[in-house]
């Protein structure tokens, strides 16, 4: 049986870069700066966890209008879904606020849904997601398509994650939200509730992104007999729950098209030594103990697959947290 392939999610990063996100908060940080940090962390997390997910990038509030639906100030920066890479990180880091204060974030959401609908056809994505970063401080052009958006999100089973302003309880006495922003938050909150999505502020989002996601996959079964004493053998199957995560390895590439040839040379001082004359040695205190290949073979630990009960202990001697 072939191994199960990695889950591959199509993710649209929908980021507001209009004029309202340029305003700084009490900490001297603008909403756009926080959006950069959060979106960059998402991409970095995927790169270092070796995820198979692929990303597209859309800007709301751009000076450019580049989308199939011709909605103003919506720019599809990265149309094709691509694996997380450094070019995508650079595009996020190079984001700058514009002087546009009339971009419709609902239009951006519609464009994102449309992109997922058409650009994922024929591709083996296991799920679809929109990650939206906006402070919802712009007036909507129209709410006519609201119900259609909700219905399409449900029908396509698109996961919606909204990262927006902090809740009113987390704001200082000097910080207030405009009437437009409050109405926008109520509206996006309704959409999130309808589609069973997630909505949070930057503080909560960044705390979650501080931890790299473990690899999600199916462990191979481990079959053996559970031995109780000398006469009882019970067939059991085990699965590995935790395993060390190997770091990604660097690949050697040549700027030119000529192949890279690796050579290993053994030196004793300045004199080259043949590989056949080299054996491993291990430090024991200040003494180097040579170990040949034959020595390793003769000292190799031989084991066999088994699962044995070798004793019993009281329940209070086994903390429950080690079983979780």
UniProtKB/TrEMBL annotation:
Establish whether keyword Nuclease is in the entry: no
PROSITE patterns reported for this sequence: VWFA
Entry keyword set? ATP-binding, DNA damage, DNA recombination, DNA repair, DNA-binding, Helicase, Hydrolase, Nucleotide-binding, Nucleus
Which ranges carry the VWFA domain? 10-209
The GO terms this record gives for MF are: ATP binding; double-stranded DNA binding; helicase activity; hydrolase activity; telomeric DNA binding
Q: Which InterPro entries match?
A: DNA_bd_Ku70/Ku80, Ku_N, SPOC-like_C_dom_sf, VWF_A, vWFA_dom_sf
One Gene Ontology cellular component annotation held by this UniProt entry: Ku70:Ku80 complex
Q: Name one GO biological process term.
A: telomere maintenance
Annotated localization:
Nucleus
Protein name, please?
A: VWFA domain-containing protein
Instruction: Name its species.
Output: Cuerna arida
What lineage is on file?
Answer: Eukaryota, Metazoa, Ecdysozoa, Arthropoda, Hexapoda
